[in-house]
Amino acid sequence: TDSPQLKLVGELYDRCQETLEQFQSFCGANFSADEYAKALPTVGELCAAYNVEPEVAFFICRPVLRHLEGQAAGAPPSKPAGAKGKEAPAEKAAADKARAAETLAALEASQGLRTVLPEGCWDLLSPQ
Q: Which of 29, 43, 51, 112 is the most buried (most CB within 10 A)?
């Protein structure tokens, strides 16, 4: 049954979603990554202090998280002095996994991510 109220709620939801996307696009186009990161509260603060749903907080902070991820990852580690040629696939996979875990830990610490979702979710999202 299509009631006018249901259609109105759907229309309002769509408009709110479009406004949120416009906001993020505007901020991304007019602020550097550092400025954007400084202007916004952390993901944890958005959820706790402003009662923003986690998926919306992650959407708003996606450029900040991408920027922080790049900072945390930094330059790839240099090879040991005696190493020549390419890394073995197993060594490369292990190094990539370790880098991903370090990056995730840095993001969790700086953005208060552990407080946003139940602990069981993090077991599923973990790069390990």
A: 43
